[in-house]
Amino acid sequence: MSTVERDVDVYLDEDGNAAVARVVERTQVRLEDLFQDGELRLWQDTAGWSGFLREETDDGDVVYYSVNRLEDGSSEEWIRKVRCGEKAVRDGIQKHIKDPEAGEAGQFVRGCSPP
Length: 115
Fold this sequence. Notes:
It is built from one helix and seven strands. It has one helix at about 85-100, and strands at about 1-10, 20-30, 40-45, 50-55, 60-70, 75-85, 105-110.
């Protein structure tokens, strides 16, 4: 689901025979099912993936990890697995959506592609 809001400002030149229109669009996109099997893979390629893990503790709390995983066929290992908070997950998704180079280094996955 997504919604679009549009603001338009129009400026006339001195003699009123030309105009400049500034159009600003704001899009809201709902990203569903981000974590699959506890993994949110923001980037992946043939060497592995990076993103976040979501784990539920025995007492029902949710714990997040910022991760980078090597899966190159010869080995599978965590290059980085650092516990983080929900804010880091939100910031990570935001950074990738804003990234003008998205798609240049691997594949942007799990419905997080910029609109």
